[in-house]
Amino acid sequence: MVTELKPGVYWVGVVDWALRRFHGVELSTHRGSAYNSYLIVDEKVALVDTVWSPFQDQLVENIRQVVDPAKIDYVVANHSEVDHSGALPAVMRAAPQATLVVSKRGLESVQGHYHQPWNFRAVGTGETISLGKNSLVFVEAPMLHWPDSMFTYLTGLNILMPNDAFGQHYATDFRFNDEVNQEELYEEALKYYVNILTPFSHLVTKKIEEVVALKLPVDLICPSHGVLWRRDPLQIVHRYLEWAAQKPEPRAVILYDTMWNGTLRLAEAIGDGLAAEGVPHKLIYAAGTDRNDALVEVFKARTLVLGCPTMNNGLLPSIEPFLGEIKGLKFKNKIGAAFGCYGWSGESVKLLEHHLEECKIPIIRPGLRAKWQPGPADLEAARAFGREIALATKKPLE
Ligand code: FEO
């Protein structure tokens, strides 16, 4: 349903209630998503971002409820990933006179996706386009989260449209942050940050400082996914600064996989050792847990303890995708340790430690191994291992 956000500014996006996997199957989206598109009717008419192509007809129909799409003068593509640019062919057919405004890097990526002879205008940071009473101001935001990403700001009505930044994969009948369950909202905002933006945390901090220095008044932050930040809109900016600082809590995640529960027994005993020292922790079973949800727990915790038995001189296949993501997300300020059972050759603990080293996660102490099923001495050693990890976890971050 089209929503007027401010006089002459309309949300014309779509809600994708059924989406459960995003980026192919890479990211879980338990609560669906929304693709937000904003229509500004001033003396000139502008559309900021479109939607994913399966919803293109709905977008054009939404625009038509407000204005004849042929009257659109500018279509702004803040970012070329197809969840926002997919409807460009339909929109540009309906608005043949429109200029397609992109960032300098967007010129390459939008042309690369669509191969159309559209009337492009590439803009850089600080460039403006007057719409009449108000103007659009552009701020390039490379790596938030693609090289082509850009923020668009509407003067006069003080609306920041930062595309993917500050978004959430969250389908709801409500458009604003003050209308939804705050726990759900922040669960989705954090999951989005962790899984999409963590590797670029230093750029997040820099970009926010740069935008704050512009001293632009902000009444509304309108991301391209999820709800819009209306009540205390800068709250999400402050949260991003906290998340970007990557100061994890003194807690531990024991991420393990197991074949015949020997490694599980060790995980439980390590947990007992952590509990004895008063360190909160979670055991996460890799083979049975959503990877993106687990990564949020890893993000929050100071300590990552990896456990896996040895199979075929290597690791169990179900833990490998977790390890790949942990490396790619480039978590900071973590410490780690490894453990696992084995029957014959027993390489898994060394492999897990090698992985921690590759992730630049310092190892608290050499790994713990148990041959066959852990016996009482092995379990006692695991409890001691847990206590030692707890003491390191409790040390303040330098
Ligand atoms: Fe980077 Fe929402 O696409």
Structure description:
This protein is an alpha/beta fold. The chain contains twelve helices and 21 strands. The chain has a seven-stranded mixed sheet with strand order 1-2-7-8-9-10-11. A five-stranded mixed sheet has the order 12-13-14-15-16, with no helix packed on it. A five-stranded parallel sheet has the order 18-17-19-20-21, sandwiched between helices. Helix 6 packs antiparallel against helix 7 (235-245).
- Described by the principal axes of the CA atoms, the overall outline is elongated
Distance between the termini: 50 Å
> Residue-averaged pLDDT, rounded?
97
Helix content: 25-40%
Topology:
Elements: E1 3-6, E2 9-11, E3 14-16, E4 21-22, E5 27-28, E6 33-35, E7 38-41, E8 45-48, H1 56-66, E9 74-77, H2 82-85, H3 88-94, E10 99-103, H4 104-114, E11 120-123, E12 128-130, E13 135-140, E14 150-154, E15 159-163, H5 182-197, H6 201-213, E16 220-223, H7 235-245, E17 249-256, H8 262-276, E18 281-285, H9 291-300, E19 301-307, H10 320-329, E20 335-342, H11 348-358, E21 368-371, H12 376-394
Parallel strand pairs: 8-9, 9-10, 10-11, 15-16, 17-18, 17-19, 19-20, 20-21
Antiparallel strand pairs: 1-2, 2-7, 3-6, 4-5, 7-8, 12-13, 13-14, 14-15
The protein binds MU-OXO-diiron.
Question: Summary?
Answer:
The protein is α/β, with parallel strands linked by helices and 398 residues long. The chain contains 12 helices and 21 strands. It binds MU-OXO-diiron.
